[in-house]
Structures are given as structure tokens and as C-alpha cells.
Amino acid sequence: MPPSQRAKQFLPFDAVAGLREALKIQEHKMGLISRKELSDEVAEYINETLARMKAGDHVAVRYFRDEKGSDSGREIGDMVLITGTVTGIDSVSQVITVEADDAGNDLHGFNEQTRIPIGDITSLDISEEF
Predict the structure, then answer these.
(1) What is the pTM of this model?
(2) How far is it, in rounded angstroms, from Cα 62 to Cα 85?
(3) How far is the C-alpha of 20 from the C-alpha of 14, rounded, in Å?
(4) 35 to each of 44, 66, 129, how far by Cα in Å?
(5) Alpha carbons 63 and 65: distance in angstroms, whole number
(6) Percent of the chain at pLDDT exceeding 70
(7) N or C terminus: which one in the chain shows less Cβ crowding within 10 Å?
(8) Is the distance from CB of 87 to CB of 55 less than 8 angstroms?
(9) Is 32 left (phi over 0), alpha (psi -120 to 50) or beta?
(10) DSSP label at 14?
């Protein structure tokens, strides 16, 4: 086999033609998005806010919620916003726990105590009252 033909056997291919495009369309219909990387400025702001945050603070947290079971090979999910009171900060497991303030948070499937991985946070604000 000539070297030019040999290289072709290692090229990626779709086992089912059009499957990749169909998955993208279905993800879009479901409102799922790919995880985006934060800018350095946003990451620094979140880190500074986390350093000031303590249990009992009222917060608004927007974070990427990973869609489990995605077959697309990339991280997809949705962005959700929860407002509530910080009930715990675990620096070892890198998780904050927030107790939702109102029933509006239930629309996103939050229970009374929502554990949010710090690495998934895309915006974080501390406020006296929302």
C-alpha cells in the first residue's frame, strides 16, 4: 500500500453518516450548550469573591450544570442561576452549598441544599438582599 493511501486509514470517520450533526441539532433543541472557558478577569473576580464569602451570605450563583450521559464526547449542559444562602464551603472538595431562597429556584430542579462545584461557577455575587 502506498504511504499516501496508508495515512487515509487513520482518518476519523462517522460510523453513521450525519449522526454528529443530528446530535448537535438535538442538543440545541434541548437548550444544551458547550462549556465555555472563563476569561482571566472573570476567574480572578470569582476567586476574590469566594475568598470573601462565608456561611450565611446571600449569593447569586450562575454555574454550568453538566448534562450526564452525553454521548457527544464533549462537556455539554446548561447554565443555571440560583439565589440563596450559603450553608457550606468545602475547600477540600471545592464545593459550595447553597440553600435556595424561593420557589423560583425550583424551576431548575434545586432542592433545599444545592451543592455547586467551584470549578463550574461562571458568576458569583454576594449581596445583603436580592
Answers:
(1) 0.65
(2) 14
(3) 8
(4) 18, 8, 30
(5) 6
(6) 66
(7) N
(8) yes
(9) beta
(10) -
SS3 80: strand
Q: Which residue has the cell 471545592?
A: 94
Identify the CA nearest to 120 among candidates 84, 79, 74: 79
Question: Please, what CATH class does the domain formed by 3-127 belong to?
Answer: mainly beta
Alpha helices in 1-130 (DSSP H): 3-8, 19-29, 40-52
pLDDT in tens, 79-93: 889 999 999 999 999
What is residue 113's three-state secondary structure? strand
pLDDT band at 21 (very low <50, low <70, confident <90, very high): confident
Which sequence spans correspond to the domains of the chain?
A: 3-127
Task: At 113, list the grid cell.
Answer: 441544599
